[in-house]
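Design request, tokens follow.
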């Protein structure tokens, strides 16, 4: 939900023909990543493909290819040291912005799909509830405050991540 609902409802998955294979579901996720710019890495493409093929397609949980992907996913990725998932990640605002595609809809200085972060900071300056309001908008989505286009919710973010993002926006 966190990664897919940025662009469309998860119902898209259920509308696909039944019985798609692991290869077909993985190709579908690769298309989201490559053609449409979904913020998912190659490991996630593989894991999502496997999950969708078992839950909605022809693959079985005990298939050797699925077991291999699950085992790989269970291990920490070699390139990502454990520190990446530690609380220190909260400070990595640029990483959060990139991983959650915030910057495909926002820039600091100009309106893109969503308002410029500078505009947001200006509007909430002096509002004692600013931090709470912006955290709520990031976590739960926002609509009607800046125009007719809504912002999707980012319910998968941790509390400290939402807090760091809201603080960052307020400082722009
Ligand atoms: C950056 C935008 C974006 C993200 C993120 C994204 N998609 Fe899509 N997706 C699209 C677009 C664009 C289409 C095709 C156009 C349409 O029909 O709206 C699409 C279509 C689909 C389809 C229908 C089949 C097809 O090829 O048209 C499925 C299934 C799908 N997406 C699954 C997912 C899943 C699962 C995720 C999350 C892992 C995801 N998408 C994330 C943009 C995205
Ligand atoms: C698909 C496009 C899109 C993405 C991705 C997106 N936003 Fe937004 N954002 C919007 C739009 C559109 C609005 C204006 C919504 C409204 O009118 O209430 C908005 C509004 C906001 C606001 C102001 C909310 C308020 O209460 O006034 C903040 C803060 C914000 N976004 C931060 C973020 C952060 C942080 C991320 C990444 C985690 C993000 N956005 C990802 C489109 C997006």
């Amino acid at each position: 939900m966190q990664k897919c609902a940025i662009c469309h409802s998860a119902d898209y998955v259920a509308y696909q023909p039944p019985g798609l294979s692991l290869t077909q579901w993985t190709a579908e996720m690769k298309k989201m990543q490559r053609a449409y710019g979904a913020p998912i890495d190659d490991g996630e493409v593989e894991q999502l493909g496997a999950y969708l093929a078992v839950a909605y397609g022809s693959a079985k949980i005990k298939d050797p290819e699925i077991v291999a992907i699950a085992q790989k996913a269970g291990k920490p990725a070699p390139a990502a040291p454990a520190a990446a998932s530690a609380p220190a990640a909260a400070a990595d605002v640029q990483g959060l912005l990139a991983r959650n595609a915030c910057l495909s809809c926002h820039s600091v200085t100009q309106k893109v799909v969503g308002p410029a972060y500078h505009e947001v900071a200006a509007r909430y300056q002096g509002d004692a509830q600013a931090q709470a309001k912006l955290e709520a908008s990031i976590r739960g989505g926002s609509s009607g405050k800046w125009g007719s286009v809504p912002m999707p919710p980012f319910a998968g973010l941790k509390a400290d991540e939402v807090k760091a993002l809201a603080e960052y926006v307020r400082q722009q």
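Comment from the thread starter after seeing the answer: thanks! Residues 3-4, 6-8, 12-13, 16, 28-29, 31-32, 36-38, 40, 48 surround heme C (ligand 1) (CB under 6 Å).
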